[in-house]
Amino acid sequence: MKLFGKRKSAQNGLAPEMYDSKDMEKVDSFIGQSFGSFDQVFHEIVSPDIHVDICMIPPAEGRNYHTLVTMGMGAHKMNVPPELAKYKLERAELVITLPADWKTHEQDEKWYWPIRLLKSTARLPIVCDTWLGWGHTVDNLEAYAENTDFCGALLIDPMVGENSVCTLKKGESVNFYQLLPIYREEMDYKIANGTDKLLQLMADTSFVVDINRANTAKGI
User: Fold this and answer.
1) Which of 79, 121, 136, 187 has a CA-to-CA distance to 91 between 20 and 30 Å?
2) Average pLDDT over every residue of 64-76
């Protein structure tokens, strides 16, 4: 299966929601300036609703990890509650960080699942007619891959990069959130106690994905 290449429109012939050229330039430039320069993009082959590419930012001096950033999720305006309109939360993109030795081009699920997580989470607001923002969790219901027990993800403000909000040409905000993979017990703890309490438990947890990290809520 071809993973890197030219973009193609949806199979049904309808064009997916996409940034216009000027906004795309703004988002592209923002990602490079805030998270690191990149020259490889994981292009989506079929786009049924939005076109979600993944910017592949490699490790660099002082940044010993891969940074993967979606580019396209924010073309869709999420269904944010009216009382939150003043916060400009309708548009979002996602970030995840992986160890320097992660095989980002492998299709085996034990390596590919972070990319699948980015893409599926990017589409969740469309599929469920909802929105995603800080503190929200996404439940996969089962482990992402056979080599890890992570089965969900928590959205937080990026722990990498210099800025988390990109302003489009009409003044709209695109908010960038980092995905932290979490265990079932951590998911349950967050639901029962809230995001702040879970983050206190995870205070010593690295923002770089570690499939073997300690389960901070186990036994609580």
Assistant:
1) 187
2) 98
Q: Where are the domains of the chain?
A: 21-182
Question: In a 3-state reduction of DSSP, which class is residue 171?
Answer: coil
Residues contacting 31, CB < 8 A, separation 6+:
38, 55, 57, 69, 71, 93
Model confidence at 10: pLDDT above 80? no
Six-digit token string for 22: 């000027």
- Strands 165-167, 173-182: pairing is antiparallel
pLDDT at 1 over 80: no
Strands 152-156 and 137-139 come out as: antiparallel
Residue 60, CA distances (Å) to 37, 49, 115, 160 in order: 10, 34, 20, 13
CA distance 98 to 192: 28
Give 15's contacts (C-beta < 8 A, 6+ positions apart).
Answer: 9
Q: How many CB atoms lie within 10 A of CB 95?
A: 27
Mean pLDDT of the chain: 93
